[in-house]
Each structure stands twice: as C-alpha cells, then as structure tokens.
Write a structure and sequence with these properties.
Radius of gyration: 17 Å
Number of helices: 6
Number of strands: 11
Distance between the termini: 41 Å
Strand order of the largest sheet: 1-3-2
Low-confidence stretches: none
Order of helices and strands: HEHHEEEHEEHEHEEEE
Mean pLDDT: 94
CATH class of the largest domain: Alpha Beta
Structural class: alpha+beta
C-alpha cells in the first residue's frame, strides 16, 4: 500500500468529501475506523487497520487524529465540522507560505480562508516556505499575530501545531 496515496485519499475524504465513499462525519469530524475501512473497501481500496495506523503515525504533517477507534482530519476542512478548538493567544509573529502567483491577490485581500474553515499559519518561516513550495516558487508572509489578537481577532492551535484564524487583513502582513 502506498502510504502517501492513502494519506492524500484520506485527506480528501475526511476534509472535503466523505460522501465520495458513502460515509458521514459526526459534528466534530470523526468517523469510526471500521466504517471508514468498510467504505474504502466498497470503493476498491482495501486498507488494513495497521496501514491506517501507520498513515496516521507517519504522516509528516500529522494531519489525522486516531482516538478510541475513530479518526478525523485535524484541520483543513471544507465540510462543516466543529473541531472544538479553544481560542489561544498566538506568538507575536506567525508565517504563511504561498506560491508566488498568489501574491497579488493576497496584497489586495489579505489571507482569506477560501472554502476552508480557517487560514493556516506556521510558527516558523521554514515550515511556511515548505508549504508555499508545494505548488510553485514560495513566498513567505509574516503575520503580526500578536497585534491581530490584541485587536480582537481569534486564533486557534490545532493538535499538530498549525495556527488557525478566519482572515488576515493586509494591514497585518509583511513580506
């Protein structure tokens, strides 16, 4: 089993389209592992519980949580879920990596969540650069997160260390 392909398929199902394999996520984004594995098998992808556990454990970005026989994506959803994250005070600076082609739009509109629930921010520049490099030449924006929080913008921290917020206005960005 190619674990990278499985990880991508799970991301698609658990973040964007659970109906593609005939499952429903609960309000917090969880689904029983047995239900997921049966659904994958019905759609031609036979995955063992051990393979699923390896994907969760070895995923470099720790995208999934596996608890008490249930699994969910940690963030990045376009389907309605409530991850139950409490607002947190962010560090003074956070970072956002993006392909160079997105810069003009960001300079006009700021960082917008698009179809996702939140904008994703990194605690360090290197991680942001790696994220931006996935789809082209990377540009890293510095986000004045401490100032944003002081101005009333909420921030959340996912279990895998990704900082989340709904929007970053241009006034809080620098290159």
């Amino acid at each position: 089993m190619d674990l990278v392909k499985l990880s991508k398929r799970l991301s698609y199902i658990l973040r964007h389209n659970p109906e593609s394999v005939g499952i429903q996520l609960d309000e917090a984004g969880w689904v029983d592992v047995d239900v997921l594995l049966e659904a994958l098998a019905r759609h031609g992808l036979r995955v063992t519980p051990q393979e699923l556990a390896r994907v969760v454990a070895e995923n470099d970005k720790q995208r999934f949580s596996l608890v008490d026989g249930r699994i969910r994506a940690r963030q990045g959803h376009t389907v309605a879920v409530n991850l139950g994250l409490a607002a947190r005070v962010p560090p003074d600076l956070l970072f956002h990596g993006t392909p160079e082609r997105n810069v003009p739009s960001i300079l006009r509109r700021g960082l917008v969540r698009g179809r996702r629930h939140h904008v994703h921010l990194s605690a360090d520049r290197d991680t942001a650069r790696a994220v931006g490099a996935r789809r082209g030449r990377p540009v890293v924006f510095t986000v004045a997160a401490g100032r944003m929080a002081a101005d009333g913008y909420p921030f959340y921290l996912s279990d895998n260390g990704v900082w989340l917020t709904e929007h970053v206005p241009v006034a809080y960005l620098s290159r």
